[in-house]
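Page 47, continued from p. 46.
Same chain as before, 239 aa.
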Amino acid sequence: MTTQSRSVVIVPAFNEVATVGAVVRAIVSGGLPVVVVDDGSGDETERVAREAGAATLKLPFNLGVGGALRCGFRWAVENGYNTAIQCDADGQHDPAELQAMIGEAEKLDVHLLVGSRFASNSGYRSTFLRRIPMRLLSRIATKAAGTRMTDASSGFRVIREPLLSEFARAYPTHYLGDTFEVLVQAGRQGYRIGEMPVIMRERAGGTASAGTSASMRYLVRALLALVIGSSHQYREFRS
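Result:
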């Protein structure tokens, strides 16, 4: 059964002063409240986001995307929201798609909706070396979710209760934990998961948090941790 949505957009940001203002203004103009979690930036990211119309949380040091998102989820729950939408601060995620994603999550009645770069003709392309492990991650996620997933590492997502409160309590902070691991673990715990096609744009500014070689190392580590089951970082959510 669906419930009335009270939604907020959570934007983790690290040194995104060049882009965060435009992202926030686009979200606000679409009728959604937004909280920007400044993940220990050394620039004016927090000030620019606040002046653009966002509520802001300023972390004293860099926790990484997962840590910043956990702070955002806690803020959302404490402020009475039952739906949160992750959106990047670099301009890759199109704020014009947010309302459609919320509507799709409600229509499908899922706890987690993933915006997929690969389920549409978005023009998004990754390198050959990244495509192979990304496809394997998606196959693992498909099995865990019980529905076809094409983009297990997408960070453009809608999270609804009761999963939102679970994320606020315990959310992985390591690379790929904030995308792939939580998808797999949520599926294994019986949360309903869905996917919809979205358009992904090129970064409007800033620098990616991980280059190709670093991303490959993390992808391999994620796969080994799941297959071998020996990493303490891969624990299922407690009920």
